[in-house]
């Protein structure tokens, strides 16, 4: 070997050794950042602190003796800071009770005789609003005939206009219970006010928290104090991270029986009422152990595409489907255009079942 080749080899060895030293230091730094992240989490302080980051950069620039210029040093360290921040975020995720990293086994929720999140797929159906005993009973009878175990129906309706039908309130919950008892169906209804919870859970088997209230933290906390299963809808413009944190509000209060439901998000698209975010299904299933359902009615607002969307949701791993059914949608007091009538519901169910995606 020539002298030149010898020194090349030597320098390469030194570079390799330096790389390993850098790696060791980076790992040490990440561990320190992890410890810091834990302390910050306990104190409720955010990880990213721009003032502190600036101070660290200033110190490094002051100490920079070259040969890298200041801009390069700044760039390199900013990347290191970013990596530490990402690591802290991943660590926080592990600490969420709803996280699959925290609980690898899927949560299965028993409602009456029905398991949600278990081996079998689940169908939840019923009118947008409970309007009368007769109307609810007709739907209840159809569900019983079709073997659908959970009846939905809104009694406290969060309407866009205060002049629109606001729901029957507690009377609506009582009707739901009467029909549920008559046909052996579990019931689900949206509650919008924490003050109504205590009374409501005498009548319903599942508390629905609607899209507009996903960020109503007092309601989430109050639902977390009950031991009644909760169906939490994704907010109109909520990220999946916000959605899971909303669920965390409930489970952190001790009520671990939470089901998530994707119901479409607001986008610029006008040909559907909302945009069904199908990617949310596998991501939520991966990130969380909670059951994940898809509301095909509110996400699309279109009766003509309910079956393909339900099939897509099941193919993506959804544990169940929610759909609105009304004996006479044309005269429904809310969401008249998007509810299926009873024969349409039977067709919808057959089509979904025939796909083989709805697990028995
Ligand atoms: C509902 O399911 O009755 C409802 C109002 O849906 P969302 O909260 O998803 O709009
Ligand atoms: Mn509706």
Automatic annotation (TrEMBL):
* GO biological process entries: aromatic amino acid family biosynthetic process; chorismate metabolic process
SMART domains in the cross-refs? CM_2
State the SUPFAM superfamilies in the record: Aldolase, Chorismate mutase II
State the Gene Ontology terms under molecular function.
3-deoxy-7-phosphoheptulonate synthase activity; aldehyde-lyase activity; chorismate mutase activity
The EC number of this protein is 2.5.1.54, 5.4.99.5
Q: Which InterPro entries match?
A: Aldolase_TIM, Chorismate_II_sf, Chorismate_mutase_GmP-bac, Class-I_DAHP_synthase, CM_dom_sf, CM_II_prokaryot, DAHP1/KDSA, DAHP_syn_2
In the record, which residues are listed under signal peptide?
none
UniProt key word Transferase: yes
Name a Pfam family for this protein. CM_2
Which keywords annotate this record?
Answer: Isomerase, Transferase
In what residue span(s) does the Chorismate mutase domain sit? 2-92
Question: What PANTHER family would the database entry show?
Answer: PHOSPHO-2-DEHYDRO-3-DEOXYHEPTONATE ALDOLASE, PROTEIN AROA(G)
Q: What is the protein name stated in its UniProt record?
A: 3-deoxy-7-phosphoheptulonate synthase/chorismate mutase
Q: Which organism is this entry from?
A: Paenibacillus peoriae
